[in-house]
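Figure 6 in text form: structure in, sequence out.
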């Protein structure tokens, strides 16, 4: 049966390095006969978690905030796999991705994801990506999905600079495994 992979592309630069990694991964997913849903979360209206506990104490998983996170939940309901994609911003993931991750708090125990992956881009060496990798692995553990791989493209600064790099092929191959 065909599987669906949700890709959360979180750079504000559509067509930038992490977004191009997403597209290569998506080609791999589709080559394997599966489907993708891609959301540009940096261009969605997603507010930060208020820590009000409404989702846990009153509503059984529905967040009190009504915004574009509803589109993420709708996509998650159809998805078997999740891909987080982010540029490294000051040794972590983008704030735009972190907003979505924190909002998963409402229903993280009820997600039916089986697999996941992480795509990162940075201007420097891979050691700047340590905290983003740790966060992702802990999320996988906490949400109960199997990590299928982490790709970190290094030495890419300007938007699109990644396009000549072999890491795009790695993302394509990773997409085939999801
Ligand atoms: C606010 C900001 C912070 C950044 N911090 C880092 C950093 O800590 N380490 C690094 O190697 N690159 C850093 N970068 C560079 C980006 O990670 C790099 O340009 C990346 O390829 C951007 O991906 P994108 O094209 O998908 O937006 C930063 C860029 C911005 C705009």
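Output sequence:
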């Amino acid at each position: 049966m065909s599987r669906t992979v949700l890709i959360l592309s979180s750079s504000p630069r559509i067509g930038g390095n992490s977004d191009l990694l997403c597209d290569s991964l998506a080609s791999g997913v589709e080559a394997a006969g599966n489907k993708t849903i891609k959301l540009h979360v940096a261009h969605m209206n997603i507010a930060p978690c208020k820590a009000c506990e409404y989702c846990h104490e009153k509503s059984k998983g529905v967040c009190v905030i009504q915004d574009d996170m509803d589109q993420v939940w709708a996509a998650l309901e159809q998805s078997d796999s999740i891909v987080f994609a982010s540029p490294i911003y000051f040794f972590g993931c983008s704030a735009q991705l972190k907003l979505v991750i924190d909002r998963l708090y409402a229903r993280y125990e009820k997600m039916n994801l089986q697999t996941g992956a992480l795509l990162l881009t940075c201007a420097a060496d891979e050691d700047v990506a340590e905290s983003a990798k740790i966060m992702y692995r802990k999320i996988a553990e906490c949400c109960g999905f199997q990590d299928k791989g982490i790709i970190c493209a290094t030495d890419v600064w300007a938007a699109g600079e990644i396009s000549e790099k072999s890491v795009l092929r790695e993302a394509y191959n990773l997409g085939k495994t999801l």
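Caption detail: Helices lie at 17-31, 54-57, 69-77, 95-103, 130-143, 167-177.
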